[in-house]
Amino acid sequence: MIERMMRRGCVIEKEKDGKVILLTIGWLSAILAFGFFPVFLGAIAICMGVVLRRDYDVDKQGTGLIVVGIIGIIAGTVIGALVPW
């Protein structure tokens, strides 16, 4: 996606290049939410999915991150409650 900026009367086009790092952080958080800190890491995955869908036009992986984040929160909480420490 290209972002347009105005500086001193001329248009500067700047391409957003953070998509790969957002995808990496999002999927790592979604996977780790099943075992460690499910509410925190699941929320990070959901937020990354929303940002990717809204700002970077990555609809399929953004939606996947949101769904897996929600499932990670629920499953991680249930697994954490069932596993005796």
Entry summary:
The protein is an alpha+beta fold. It has helices at 19-32, 38-55, 59-82; strands at 2-7, 10-15.
Please give a structural write-up.
The chain has 85 residues and is α+β, with helices and mostly antiparallel strands. The protein is 66% helix and 14% strand. It has 3 helices and 2 strands. The protein has helices at 19-32, 38-55, 59-82, and strands at residues 2-7, 10-15. A two-stranded antiparallel ribbon has the order 1-2. Helix 1 (19-32) runs parallel beside helix 3. The longest helix is centred in the C-terminal third of the chain and has 24 residues, at 59-82. The protein starts with a strand and ends with a helix.
Uncertain regions spanning at least 5 consecutive residues: none
Q: What does the radius of gyration come to? A: 17 Å
How many runs of DSSP E, i.e. beta strands?
Answer: 2
Fraction of residues in helix: 55-70%
Determine the number of helices (DSSP H or I, runs of at least 4 residues): 3
- Average per-residue pLDDT, rounded, comes to 86
**What would you call the structural class?**
alpha+beta
What is the beta-strand fraction?
5-15%
| Main β-sheet, spatial strand arrangement | 1-2
SSE series? EEHHH
What is the general shape? elongated
